[in-house]
Design brief:
alpha+beta
Length: about 160
């Protein structure tokens, strides 16, 4: 009976130690970057094949590698990338020729976020005509929306 009590106390102590050392509830593991620097975006997203003229992006990184119970880190990114209108038109023409299997009709993921008011207002006005595509430009499992002169990216 004494061994069971010792085992129970040891298990409780280890559980409390793990709980206290785990930084799951702390916000210190969250790193948020908002930038308009193209080279910073290139470090996060491979934009070499379809390089924008100008960018604004938000990158949120959760570093879960610390603590007693370390886990995989998570990363989220939203980007607004400005392109030449001719380049976007050419891309749209290419998309019109492709099959529409990769299209997702849910634009809500791009609404009510950090994009500037002008972009958000444009999204709301034309949301019924917009199509959210699986990312085919940057080789990720993200999504993109094509506007007149911009590509919105989200992962």
């Amino acid at each position: 009976m004494v061994k069971f009590k010792e085992f129970a106390v040891l298990c409780l102590a280890l559980f409390l130690f793990a709980l206290l050392s785990c930084n799951y509830h702390e916000k210190s593991n969250k790193i948020k970057t908002v930038s308009e620097n193209l080279s910073d975006l290139q470090n996060i997203l491979n934009i070499s094949k379809f390089k924008p003229q100008k960018v604004k992006f938000q990158h949120i990184y959760f570093d879960n590698s610390n603590g007693f119970l370390a886990g995989p880190s998570d990363s989220f990114i939203q980007a607004e990338m400005l392109y030449d209108k001719k380049k976007i038109d050419s891309l749209k023409n290419t998309l019109n020729k492709l099959e529409s299997d990769s299209q997702i009709m849910n634009i809500d993921a791009f609404l009510n976020n950090w994009f500037n008011h002008q972009t958000s207002d444009k999204l709301v006005k034309v949301q019924k005509e917009l199509i959210v595509y699986d990312d085919f430009l940057y080789n990720t499992n993200g999504n993109i929306v094509l506007l007149e002169d911009k590509i919105l990216y989200r992962k």
